[in-house]
Amino acid sequence: MKKVTIDLYVDNVFNANYIPYEYQQLRSAKYGGNFITAQAGAPTFVGASMAAKF
């Protein structure tokens, strides 16, 4: 093997609550009224990857 690369990564280390995406739709009651769509942030995640060149 010529080269080996190992990567470790952590997302949201402190498990904070956050909203990365929020969308507000304003419509008349005739078409369903107003609503807000939001996506909660991901919980703590730990991962790793490895690559090797021959």
Can you describe this structure in just a few lines?
The chain is 0% helix and 52% strand.
Strand content: over 45%
Return the structural class.
mainly beta
Q: Can you summarize the main beta sheet?
A: 2 strands, antiparallel
Oligomeric assembly: single chain
First and last CA, distance = 4 Å
Tell the overall outline.
elongated
Radius of gyration: 21 Å
Number of strands: 4
Biggest sheet, spatial arrangement of strands: 1-4
Give the low-confidence spans: none
Mean pLDDT: 90
Description:
The protein is mainly β. About 0% of the residues lie in helices and about 50% in strands. It has no helices and 4 strands. It has a two-stranded antiparallel sheet with strand order 1-4. It has a two-stranded antiparallel sheet with strand order 2-3. The protein is elongated.
Give descriptors for this structure.
mainly beta
Helix-strand blueprint:
Blueprint: E1 3-11, E2 21-25, E3 35-39, E4 45-53
